[in-house]
Every structure is written in structure tokens, then in C-alpha cells.
Amino acid sequence: MATPPPYGQKLRAKVRNWINTLLKGTHSHFASYLPGSKGRLTTWVLKRFYAGIKENQDQIAVFKNLPADAIFIYVNKHKSYFEFLYYHCRYQELDLPYPEIGFGYRVFLWQPFSRLLRMALANLHYLITKFARPNPYTSDYYRRELLRGRAAFLSLVEKKDFHRRFIKEHTDPLQYLLEIQKTINQPIYLVPQLMFFGKRPSRYYPKLADMLFGPEARPGKLRRLVTLFKNSDKIFIETSEPINLKRFIEQQTVTDQSADYLSLILRRDLLRQINRHRQSITGPTIKSMQELKEGILTGPRLKEYLEQYAQKRDTPLWKVRKKADGYLEEIAAKYSPAFIRFASHVVGWIIDSMFQGVTHNHDGINKIKAMSQKGPLIFVPCHKSHVDYLMLPYLLYNYNMPAPHIAAGKNLSFWPMGPIFRAGGAFFLRRTFRGNVLYAKVFAEYVHKLLAEGFNIKIFIEGTRSRSGKLIMPKLGFLSILLNAYKNGACEDLVFAPIYIGYDRILEESAYVHEVEGGQKEPENLKQVLRARRFLKNRYGRIYIKFHEPISVNSLLAEQYQRPLNDLDTKQQNALCRDLGWRIINAINSVTVVSAYGLVSSAVLNSSLRLFSLEDLMFDIDTYMNILASQDADMADTLRHGHINTIKNVLDTYVQRKLITQVSDHTQDEATDFQYQVNVSKRPLLEYYKNNCVSYFIPAAFTALAILEKDTFRFTAADLHASYVFLRSFFKYEFAYNLDLPPDYFIRKSIKAFINDASLVPHQTIPDTYNLTPAGLRKLKSLAKFLKTYFESYWIVLQTFRQNARDKLNGKDRLKKIQSMGNRLYKRKEIDLPESLSKINFDNATNYFTTHDVKGSEDADQIAHFEDIIQGYLKLLSS
Fold this sequence. Notes:
CATH class of the largest domain: Alpha Beta
Structural class: alpha/beta
Number of strands: 22
Helix content: 40-55%
Oligomer: single chain
């Protein structure tokens, strides 16, 4: 018979069983784990505590693109219980993977009471039995929990963290995660998280409040709580691009390295990404004007240049430096974040007073926002109005991006607006640098400094506001300065963001018509600003902003040249600059928003009828909308939904504004029977709005005119090629074209649209042959008439050359003679359209003819050659 165990042994067994029951058979009860089920009171308190912080839905959408089986590790820069608890609480509320494990965190206050007892008991029991404390790394607790699907939170920077890892050899959580990833197929995603307590950039010299309570980038406890309870709307969250650890390990450059080395690389990349993301929101560190000037004037490149300049001109060096310092004062912005915050409210009020709203594409802004982490952004909007200066910075600021520095003409530096513009980030440049190499060098160094500091820049590649409504061909001077700065190492990449900004109606329309007809531009001054108050009482419709896919110089070089910019010779660099300029113009054209005002203006001006009805207009508008649909053009919402009512409303507006006249006596119930007539004196203004969307119709207009030129109802696509190529070359100063696509692409695309619109019918037996339908003839003429204005303008210029010798056609006198010729031809009814008397068209025609050996009456043969061509096309357009 067995001897019963001693009483003490029984007691120890009971205690062990009791401890095992309380600990649930494990010592893995760590303060770094905060369960989702914390109790109702705790959950309610945390929700209320963080209730004022709002999420950006675009940021939340990042998680939808990650695999369902991914292991989530949220990463922030500085250790913060405030942030850990926020993501734990809020992401659980949003039904997203929420962090329950905090690497390096020990949470006690928010734990359920039962867990606190188990943690205390587990630590005590482990200490008594093992003479150590339980370790979540060596026990593989973290690994087990992560593989069960729990998310974790990790901070990259912590006081004494490096000391613990490097001196005491504590486990590095990044290295631990890398070791786990090497042994599993399930991907681990590191998701960087940034919490902002304001959008103000950090200062080179911090203010007293920043020293006492911490800066906005890393506020102290008091500042954090005050912001949370007093200005919670200032707090927002950004999610940076997630890093797939599996893919990181598989990179060829790191496959042979140890996990210890990989963790160093990974930590460096994460910190760099988080820092760049933060800078893309707040902008770079703000330095005083004096600091920027000292950095530029004492930089090695400019310093050496000033010494050589003084030596060559035998001028004292101090005088040269004084002149350079004066140029910087003339050029430089005095960027003020406080002023920009104030201006955002003022601009918002102005926009609400003048316009009916702003339409923009969210996805485009998000792509640009992501690209801003790779290098400085160069925003390149089209330039239609002075409102452009206000609109883009306002929109960017409200999307948590810093307002860019803006390149503005020196004519806008007048008092008192000059100092205001400078505070908003405007820097000023002269219209020409010709004859002043020192000014050009100082300006180039200023731009280099802006890029090196990380500032975004906004430029107008057209050089000035478009008075014609369509885009002006690119001016490459500033583009060349930017590329040189990039070449000299100012930044790792240069990212161009082409942007369309358009309006239903612009403020400057009367001034533009005056200038296009040959009037002098009125210089900007204080009187104009005071007079502009009356605009606040008007409504100018909607503003349309569309962001194109960003263009990276690094990517463009890799695709087109297969080598860096420094390896290109001067000729190739110039070709790159031209290529980039055309790409930007084409990109803006491709995202142009077609408004109902532009479409109605096109149909009204292209109509061959003196009196026209709504039905007549709708015939042409339906043709135009078919062309727009074939190009997937971005149309205003009012055109996409119920466009007939929209067209009626635009006609009513044009009648009220006396742009067109209603000549019928029918009642309002018979609106479809109304007859309209264009007010001839207002045609140039309608031409402006027609040109807002003309780029979409040019390929179809070229193709339609090439078909009409064949003077037959049957043709092949190949028959149109020569005419299309000529027209594209003839109007190269008027319209940009896609560099990557051949003419045949646009011809066939237009033919396909004509077939869809029943203008053409493919031949039943002969391949690549098409028949023109009777209705198609009218439709093609309507499309080809987009070109009539330009042919008439070019005819006027050609007649001026015929009647004047070369020595009598110089400078401003030449333009006066052209304008005088245009007026005579119009009065004699040899020119049909008053909008053809366009100074802008005259300039472009002059550029074309002078580069094709037509400079005066001596070039009679060339003049006769072009006369035959233009008259042939005008006959087709007039019949």
C-alpha cells in the first residue's frame, strides 16, 4: 500500500494548481498587451477623450489596399502613450486592425483589474521560480500573438532606447520582426503613422513657447492636452506608405546582410520616410530672410562667381556683393506661416462671395501628396486669371500641404500688394534677364536654395495669363533654371505637377478682349485693387481644378535617355527641357475640364446660320460631346447629367449678358422655338470661352478638314496623313500635341469617333476605307470650323507681308501694320470673323511665317505658296 504524500507536498501542489489556474497555464501576461475588451467604463472614457480628433477618409482607405492576411505593425517616430492609446481606441471603433501589442510600452492604467492581478502574480511567480522576469521576446509571446492576427505598435525613437539595444543588448523589435518574416510566408506590413498638432513648420530658432511646452511636431503633455481640448480640429492623422517586410528582405541589395544590419537600414528608411512625410505637410524649417541671404551669398558657387565677376569688370568686390544683395531683396519671398493661416480664411471668404463652388479631383491631390515625399514639387497650373495665385495655395493648405513659393512677375511687387504677396510665398522675377548676367546668377542661386531647403514652387510655364483662353506654348527659361538646380544637386528628384485651373467666367474678360484686339495692357497698381471690390458682389460660376499625374524628372530620364542628367551633353539637356515643357502643356490640356459655357460658345461661334435655334445648337453640341466622349474628356457635372437643361441655362445667361440676342416673340413655354443671334461685338469674348476647351477638338478638326479637302465621299485613312501632318506643323505655335503618339493614332481615333456618330460608314468590302454620310458632311464642317479663326488671322499676316518690304516690318510697327490690315480686310468683308483680329494669333502667325522664309514682299514665291493653301482651306470652311 502506497504511502500518502506529506501534508506540505500536498499544499505545494494545491498552490501550484491554484497559481496555474489564475495564470491560465502561462506566465505570458505582459503590460505591453492592452486587450480590446477593457470594460465599458474604460472604453467610454477613451472614446470621449479622443472624440475631437477627426480622421481623413483618404488616409483610412490605405488599409483597404493591403492583403487581408497581413500582419499590421503601426510605426511612429517618438514613443508616445498618447498615440498608442489613440490608435488602439479609434481603429477598433472604425473596425480596422487595431494595435493591442506595444513594443517597448507598459500600460497599467487602462488594463482590466483581473489582468493587473495576473501580471503581478506572473512576474512574482516567475521571479521566485526562475530568478528572472518573463521576457516576451525570448518566450516568443510576440510571435505567437502576431501570428494569431493581433496588430502591434512600435516607436522608432525613445530615450535610452539605443543605449539598451547597443550596450545592454536588449532585443531590437525591428530585428525581431525581420527574423519572424524570414520564417513565415504571411507578409508583415509596417504602417507609418504621423499625428499632427498643427501645420506650422518648425523654426530654425524655436520660440519660447516651443522651448517650454514643446514644438507642434513633438508637443509636451500640457500643450498636447490643451490642443486636444481647446483646438482639437488642429489635430489630424496621416498614414504614410506601408512597407512590406517580405519584399524588403527580398531586395537584392540586402539579401546577404545580417538581421542586425537590416534592422539599421530599415530604421533609417522608416525615419527618413516619416520625416519627409511630415515635411510634405508642414513644409521645411523656416529660416529668417537674413539666414537665407547669408546661405546664398556665401555659398561656394555664388561666392566664386562674384569674385570672378568683380575681377573681369574691374569693380570692387564689395560693390558687386552689394548689388547681389540688392537683387536678393528684390527677388526673395518673406514666407510667413502665420500670414498664410490668416490668408486662408480671407481667400475662402472671397471664393465663397464670388463663385458658386470649387470642383477638384481628390485622387489627383492624393497622388501629388504621395509624390511630394520623393522630392520638391513644382506645381505648374495653366494661367487664366489672377485668381490662380490664390486658388491653388488655398486648396493645398486645406488638404494639409504647405503653400508653395510662387514665381510672380515683378509687375506684381507694387505697394502695398508686393509685401502681402511676399508673405504668402511669392518671389518676383523680371520679364527678361537679358543683359544682366549677375541678376540671372543670383536668381538661379535663390531657386537652388529653395529646392535644397525642400520648398515646393509654383510656376506658370506660359509666362503670363492667357488672353486667348487656350494654353500658350511653354516658356522654357524658368524650366531650364530648375533643371540646372536639380543637376547641381539641389534635390534628389524634381516632381512636376501639371494642373488645370478653369472658370465658368473670369474676372478679367473685358481687359482680355481689349488686349487681344490690340489695346495696351494696364499696369497693375493699387487703383486696380480698390476697383476690384465690385467683383465681390458678382457670381462667376464654378472653379474647376484638375490635377494630372505627376511627372518625375528621374523617371523621365530613365525612360527617355537611360542615364542621369549629368551624363547628357548640352544639346540633349536642351532637348530634355523642350520635351518636358511640351509634356507639361499636353498634360494640362489632357485634364482640361469642359464647361457648358465653353461648349455653348463653340457651337454658337461655329454655327453657319445667322439665326439659330436651340435645336440647331444641340445638333452641333451632340457632335462635340461625341468627340469629348471618345477622348474620355473631363466634363463638368452639369454636362454629364441633364445637359440639355444646362445648355438652356447657359443660353439664358448669355442673353442676359447681351452676348447673344433672343429675336423671337414666343412665350417661355415654347423655349425650344426661340431664335438667337450672336452679338457681333461680343464674338471675341465668346471666342475666349470657346478656346477654353479647344484642345480636345483640334485632332478631330484636323482630321475633318483633311476629309473635306479630299472632296470625295470615299477615302482611306492613309489619304489623310499628309494633310494632318501639314496642319499640325502649320499651327505648331497655336496647339501643343502629344510627343509620344504619331499622327496616325489621332487620325484613326477621330475616324472611330466619326463612325460612332454616324458621320462615317466603313466600306463593306474594301478594308480601311470609309464613306462620308450626308449628315456627316455637316458635322465635319462644324468640327473643322474650330480652325477658321486661325486661318483668317494667318491670312491677314500674310497679306501684310505681301504689301510691305522686310525693312518696313520691324518690331511694334509690324504689329500695327498687321492690325491695320486686319481692320481693312474685315471692313471689306474679306474676313468674316471679328475674333480673327487677334493680336495673339498675329504674333503666332508671324513666328510661323518668319521661320519659313516669309519676312516681307521680297518673298513672293513663298507668300503665294501659303496664300494658295490658306485660301483653299477657307473655301472649304465657308461653303
